[in-house]
């Protein structure tokens, strides 16, 4: 695939000396969804702001669709749709005028059919004549999304697009995202709902303290860094893990009715066979066993903790 966003050693240092981005390099392929994950203050919004021309990088280079974000700003920005974290809309303007005006800003001719399609996708069509100040917070968020889509961008930045909104909007948003992906639009997502990234992203990028820690295909990342947990339900509860099982580092449930055993599938052996034999030797009867895989959230939290150590 072709990289539609190409970031090379991008740095942003503010006048006060704070370095928000430190040598960030990232290639984003056309038509993929990449989730940019990181704690508050990690540099996610600064990176998006630099690529969208909201803030100027201190050094390094980046292109969008082959257009330099500094020397070819207008052409680069015309390819980008941005849904920012903050809701900044003209309160006395009507919804449909707000959306149409955004299309005009990019020099695109008015397209009533497209505007209607987008407003209907976001359940805004019935509110098209309403003034922005009359809308709920969730509806205002929908207007931001419509504004970002109406000039038909090829790259869409979603900076915490569903933070603090209702379940219905989140569902509508991801339905729209799936349609955009089918049309070949590249989507860069930041979110605190890591289950969303796990559900829709093709690749995961982790950023912390202004540096990219990792960029990897989601499934490969979860296979490589994820661990599995074997839960063992006991026939009879126990008060403590028998001393003969100490080497297995088992976790006993508060009610004493189950044990959890964590293991890594990348190792030479899981140790499960030996564990089951040891359980039998200790006189523990098994009622059921089940295996679960680490979630993306658990992997992410673990990486950030390691980086802070």
UniProtKB/TrEMBL annotation:
InterPro entries according to UniProt: AAA+_ATPase, ABC_transporter-like_ATP-bd, ABC_transporter-like_CS, ABC_transporter_ATP-binding, P-loop_NTPase
Domain of life, source organism: Bacteria
Record has Lipoprotein as a keyword: no
GO molecular function, a single term: ATP hydrolysis activity
ABC transporter domain location: 5-234
Keywords: ATP-binding, Nucleotide-binding, Transport
Any Pfam family the entry gives: ABC_tran
Keyword Flavoprotein in annotation: no
SUPFAM superfamilies: P-loop containing nucleoside triphosphate hydrolases (SSF52540)
PANTHER family in alphabetical order: ABC TRANSPORTER ATP-BINDING PROTEIN
Protein name: ABC transporter ATP-binding protein
């Amino acid at each position: 695939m072709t990289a539609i966003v190409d970031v090379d050693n991008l740095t942003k240092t503010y006048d006060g000396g704070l370095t928000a981005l430190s040598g960030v390099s990232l290639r984003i392929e056309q038509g993929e969804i990449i989730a940019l994950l990181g704690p508050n203050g990690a540099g996610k919004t600064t990176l998006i702001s630099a690529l969208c021309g909201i803030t100027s990088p201190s050094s390094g280079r980046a292109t969008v669709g082959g257009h330099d974000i500094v020397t070819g700003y207008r052409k680069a920005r015309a390819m980008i749709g941005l849904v920012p974290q903050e809701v900044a809309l003209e309160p006395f303007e009507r919804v449909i005028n707000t959306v149409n005006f955004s299309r005009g800003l990019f020099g695109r001719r008015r397209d009533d059919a497209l505007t209607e399609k987008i407003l209907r996708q976001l359940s805004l069509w019935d509110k098209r004549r309403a003034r922005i100040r009359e809308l709920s917070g969730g509806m205002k968020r929908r207007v931001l999304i419509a504004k970002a889509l109406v000039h038909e961008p090829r790259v869409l930045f979603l900076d915490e697009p569903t933070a603090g909104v209702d379940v219905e909007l989140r569902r509508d948003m991801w339905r729209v995202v799936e349609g955009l992906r089918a049309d070949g639009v590249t989507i860069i997502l930041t979110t605190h709902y890591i289950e969303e990234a796990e559900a829709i992203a093709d690749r995961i990028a982790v950023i912390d303290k202004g540096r990219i820690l990792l960029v990897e295909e989601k499934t490969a990342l979860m296979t490589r860094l994820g661990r599995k947990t074997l839960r063992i339900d006991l026939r009879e509860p126990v008060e403590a893990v028998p001393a003969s099982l100490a080497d297995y580092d088992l976790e006993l449930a508060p009610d004493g009715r189950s044990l959890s055993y964590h293991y890594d599938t990348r190792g030479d052996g899981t140790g499960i066979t030996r564990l089951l034999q040891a359980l039998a030797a200790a006189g523990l009867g098994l009622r059921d066993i089940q295996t679960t895989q680490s979630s993306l959230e658990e992997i992410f939290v673990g990486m950030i903790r390691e980086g802070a150590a």
